[in-house]
Fold this protein.
Amino acid sequence: MQIIPYTKEWKERWDNFVLESNNGTMFHMQKFFDYHKPGRFSFNHLMIVEKGKLIGVLPGAIVDDMVYESPIGASYGSIVLKDLKFADTLEVVDTLIEYGKKEGFKEFLLTSAPNIYEKVQNQNLDFALLWRGFNYDLHYISSAIKLDPDTDFISRCSQTIRRNIRKSLKNENIRVEINDRYDEFYPILLDNKSRHNVKPTHSLEDLYKLAELLPDNLKLFMVYLNDKPIAGSSMFLGNDQVAICFYNMLLYDYAEYKPIQRVMYEVVKYSTEQGYKYVDIGVSQDTSADNPMTPSMSLIEFKEKFDAKTTMRNTFRLKL
């Protein structure tokens, strides 16, 4: 077993491996990284190879003072594997640590996708990392809705949410479309983010580029009042298990129509019908707090009204 730096000749094999893996997501694919403008990041993706066969991938880069960080330029990173036995997983971790020491890395910093993204629930990798000296560095509280095709989703929501969704469904002036009108969505996104003095992670050009590179992984749900766009949800279909509400945004002048509650209903309905197991509705941190782990209680409570449950996004650190 050895570590080999990624080169473009491996692109197709890399992406196919991620699709066939147990814990890979669209954020681990080379197609995803292609949306970044050349030179924005100096990637140093790594491959774990045994007898010429790809058995693991690790997207990332060397940052700061020889710290290897994963992900860079993506939401989730860390080692992507198939459903390996523990002994094989431990060998992968040992091989990575040995490679890091040989290359002069001072630290590894790895942030994996929550375990809801796994096809088979298996914490071999987490335990192997901890057994070999990694420690938890940071936790984010994230929320996800477990999908159940045999249960009416509206009945799982709080009484107020149920009432507002049903009221919206009866309003003939409100409709929800799945389309590619990012030009209509982006002004709403900018307006929402400006209220918190932040900018979106993605530019309008980025969203169009991602939709071009990964057309099967992006869905845009737009809410219209008559013909006016008043809200939307930009969905990233992370893998076969999880659909992600990456951006849920509304024009606050139209908040009385509860468009976010309606679009959440439509997103859950679509995701359930398409066979996904969860809808990930993102982290809920108080970004104004000094401690990055500080939870945003109001945001968590709002998500719980849709029967969302907590799933953690964990970062592992190892000092070599």
Notes: The domain at 2-140+315-319 is CATH 3.40.630.30 (Aminopeptidase). The mean pLDDT is 96.
